[in-house]
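Dear colleague,

As promised, here are the two records you asked about, laid out in our usual form so they can be pasted straight into your sheet.

NAME FIELD: protein one
SEQUENCE, THEN STRUCTURE:
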Amino acid sequence: QVHLTESGGGLAQAGDSLRLSCAASNSVYAMGWFRQAPGKERELVVAIDYNGDSTYYAHSVKGRFTISRNNAIRTVYLQMNSLKPEDTAVYYCATSFRMAAMTNGEYDYWGQGTQVTVSS
């Protein structure tokens, strides 16, 4: 069992930056950040493989969001720049048993989520 704890969400204005963190209770492999806006399905936003060599970015966040990880402290980060109102959602950290997981269906454990609200 892996426990994931997200932090760093909150309120922001359009154009602002936020950084989310996700701490894992055990060593983890592929990591990803999902988000779910009201009335929408949960979507994979960004992902990173175990070594940090391979990443995935959804088209809607490419160039604005950056995922990174520090395996020594079992933490993954999501730097979100140039935030837009459409980035408003609950953001979930997730991990996979796989070394790399770049699609929605490859994740095994989820955090509780952290709310990000961006006002215009």
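NAME FIELD: protein two
SEQUENCE, THEN STRUCTURE:
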Amino acid sequence: QVQLVESGGGLVQAGGSLRLSCAASGRAFRLYTMGWFRQAPGKEREFVARINWSTGSTEYADSVKGRSTISRENAKNTGYLHLNSLEPEDTAVYYCAAGTTAIVPYNTWGQGTQVTVSS
């Protein structure tokens, strides 16, 4: 069983930056992909970004493209989401998700970390 623990959320002013971390732990696992999703109050959960753990290739939602960077540190089984030029509309609970099989994109989810952007 793989566990994901997010950290790095908090309160930031508009225009500021945050780096979210997602640490994966467990026994004998392999990461295929890691993604970030977010859910704002009253809205559905939406995709933010993802990274292929082997190749490092990335994909971003249009809403954060150019303002965010997803990366990973293989040795630490940790992924990161760097958010820049934050806007109040970025306020949400951010969830890390990982795929530990080649079949299911995301079969493990973290508990989420709150990001609040004040205007």
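A couple of things worth noting about protein two: Residues 12 and 117 are 5 Å apart (CA to CA). The chain is about 0% helix and 50% strand.

Best,
R.
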